[in-house]
Amino acid sequence: MSEVRAIAQLGAEVLRLRAQEVQDINASEMQETISDLFASLASTNGVGLAAPQISASWRMLIIASRPSARYPYAPEMEPTLMINPSFECISDVQEKDWEGCLSIPGIRAKVPRYTFIKVNYTNAQGEAVTQNLDGFVARVFQHEYDHLDGLVYLDRVENNKDIISESEFLKLIATN
Ligand code: NI
Questions:
Q1: Which pLDDT value is given to residue 70?
Q2: Around Cβ 51, how many Cβ atoms within 10 Å?
Q3: What's the 102 CA to ligand 1 centre distance in angstroms?
């Protein structure tokens, strides 16, 4: 049975730890974490969730890009589980764009991220996968990946003036 878990909020120690590598995805604790991660993300309007955000300090994340009121320009994709992910940029190009985080409600900020990346991970079936990601999905990956290293997107903000309230953000995208 999967359980919707509370989302760890900024200040919680688990968000500042380096999460541990997953050794055995078939271990019952891992299987439970995986199903709770899917259930917890589905209960929100987020486009990604990392295991530390449900207080499970393991290197796994889900990306589930879909258009919503929060992210009207997001492409549609199946929720994808990535275990022990890694990535490299395949070009130096970076873009600055808006991000938000379920662990930091009420805030949005502009953050630079690589536009074109190549990711490696183990999928839910235990297979090694290599995939190129770009644009919004690459951004979501890099945001979630940071959670595995104890970082949050505010750590990447270049100027405090790039941080705004969610209500101002919603006004901003309504006029664009
Ligand atoms: Ni986040």
A1: 66
A2: 27
A3: 6
